[in-house]
Specification:
The complex is a heterodimer of chains A (113) and B (114).
Chain A: E1 4-6, E2 10-13, E3 19-25, E4 31-38, E5 42-51, E6 54-57, E7 64-70, E8 73-78, E9 87-94, E10 103-104, E11 108-112
Parallel strand pairs in A: 2-11
Antiparallel strand pairs in A: 1-3, 3-8, 4-5, 4-9, 5-6, 7-8, 9-10, 9-11
Chain B: E1 4-7, E2 10-14, E3 19-25, E4 32-38, E5 45-51, E6 56-59, E7 62-67, E8 72-77, E9 86-92, E10 103-104, E11 108-113
Parallel strand pairs in B: 2-11
Antiparallel strand pairs in B: 1-3, 3-8, 4-5, 4-9, 6-7, 7-8, 9-10, 9-11
Classes of the chains: A mainly beta (113), B mainly beta (114).
Chain lengths: 113, 114
C-alpha cells in the first residue's frame, strides 16, 4: 500500500521559532508537494519539488522554505513562525509533475502561539 | 490564474438519497478535473477524475459530469451511505501549465444521516 508519512500529527510552537515539518513517501515519486488547508479556503499550494534539490514556489510561498535532499523526503520549513501560519499542513506526492493523482499524508495540525 | 468555486459548503442527505456537488472554473484552458474525498483525521484521497475530452465518467456509485461551455463540473453520489460522510474537494488544472498548478475549491462537508 502506497504511503506518505508526515512526522507529526499535532505540533505546538511559539512565535518566532523555526519549525520543520517532515514528509516521507515510499512510492519512488519524483514529485512532492506541500499544501496548506484552511477552512473555507480549500487547499493552497505552498511549494513543490520535481526532483532532488529542485523546487518551485506555489501560490503562497511567503514565510516558508523547503528542502529536498533525498528523493523520498521533502521538508517544509517555517523560518520564523507567526500566528497566521497556524494551519493544517498536508504533504503529497505524485507520479506526474502537474500534480495529477496526488497521494496525501494525514496532515500536521500546527498551532503557533 | 484559475479560480475554482465550489457549492454548497455543507450538504446533509438522508441515507439512500443522492448528493450533488457543483464546481465552476474560470480558465477555459483547464482540462483536468479531479475530486478528492477527505475523511476525518485523514488526508484527501483521489476518488475520480475527468479530462476535458470526456463529458461524463462513472465509478460505481460516483459520477462526474463536465460542461465545458458553461465551465462547470459536478460530482454525483447515488445511494448515499454513512461512509460517504466526508469533505469533498474539486480541483482544476490545465495541460501545459507549469508544475503542479492544481487549484482546489473550498470544499463541501457532506453528512449522510441514517
Amino acid at each position: 500500500d502506497v504511503k506518505v508519512t508526515q512526522s507529526s500529527r499535532y505540533l505546538v510552537k511559539r512565535t518566532g521559532e523555526k519549525v520543520f515539518l517532515e514528509c516521507v513517501q515510499d512510492m519512488d515519486h519524483e514529485n512532492m508537494f506541500w499544501y496548506r488547508q484552511d477552512p473555507g479556503l480549500g487547499l493552497r499550494l505552498i511549494y513543490f519539488s520535481y526532483d532532488v534539490k529542485m523546487k518551485e514556489k506555489g501560490d503562497i510561498p511567503e514565510g516558508y522554505s523547503v528542502s529536498r535532499e533525498k528523493k523520498e523526503r521533502f521538508s517544509l520549513i517555517l523560518e520564523s513562525a507567526s500566528t497566521n501560519q497556524t494551519s493544517m499542513y498536508l504533504c503529497a506526492s505524485s507520479p506526474t509533475v502537474r500534480g495529477e493523482k496526488l497521494f496525501f499524508g494525514s496532515g500536521t495540525q500546527l498551532s503557533v502561539l | 490564474g484559475e479560480n475554482v468555486e465550489q457549492h454548497p459548503s455543507t450538504l446533509s442527505v438522508q441515507e439512500g438519497d443522492s448528493a450533488v456537488i457543483k464546481c465552476t472554473y474560470s480558465d477555459s484552458a483547464s482540462n483536468y478535473f479531479p475530486w478528492y474525498k477527505q475523511e476525518l483525521g485523514k488526508g484527501p484521497q483521489l476518488i475520480i477524475d475527468i479530462r476535458s475530452n470526456v463529458g461524463e465518467k462513472k465509478d460505481q456509485r460516483i459520477a462526474v459530469t463536465l460542461n465545458k461551455t458553461a465551465k462547470h463540473f459536478s460530482l454525483h453520489i447515488t445511494e448515499t451511505q454513512p461512509e460517504d460522510s466526508a469533505v469533498y474537494f474539486c480541483a482544476a488544472s490545465r495541460r501545459g501549465d507549469s508544475w503542479g498548478k492544481l487549484q482546489f475549491g473550498a470544499g463541501t462537508q457532506v453528512v449522510v444521516t441514517p
